[in-house]
Amino acid sequence: MPEEPLELAMIVGSVRDGRLGPTVANWIAGQARERDDWNVDVIDLAEIDLPLVLPDFGGPRPSASSTPGASSTRTGSRPTPPAATPPPRPCSTSSPGGR
């Protein structure tokens, strides 16, 4: 009796511009599809009409099209994130007193 194939769902969770997730996920999916005992799906959250902002608990749920910065392609329409703070400077490896 043949066994049922393994169901593998890969979720690409990043929706930002310049993301590499779909490239990596599609490569891995291609490798996995070479097996006869796996069924592979790639789920890209950028292709799904999800709201980027949710209301407070119990509030009305906005539609994705009414969410500020949302679009059907989610490319180039999101607000620019705040600039990152620079990393802290590395600590000196010398001990106090120059020893």
Describe this structure in words.
By secondary structure, the chain is of the alpha+beta class. The protein folds into two domains: 1-47, no CATH class; 50-78, no CATH class. The chain contains one helix and two strands. It has a two-stranded parallel ribbon.
The secondary-structure element order is EHE
Count structural domains.
2
Kindly estimate the percentage of residues that lie in beta strands according to DSSP: 5-15%
The strand order across the widest sheet is 1-2
Shape: flat
Largest sheet: 2 strands, parallel
The percent range for helix content is 10-25%
Number of strands: 2
Contiguous helical run count: 1
Enumerate the spans where pLDDT stays under 50 for 5 or more consecutive residues. 70-80
Judged by helices, strands and strand pairing, the structural class is: alpha+beta
Distance between the termini: 74 Å
Instruction: Please tell me how large the radius of gyration is.
Output: 22 Å
Q: Indicate the mean pLDDT.
A: 76
In short:
This protein is of the alpha+beta class. 13% of the residues lie in helices and 14% in strands.
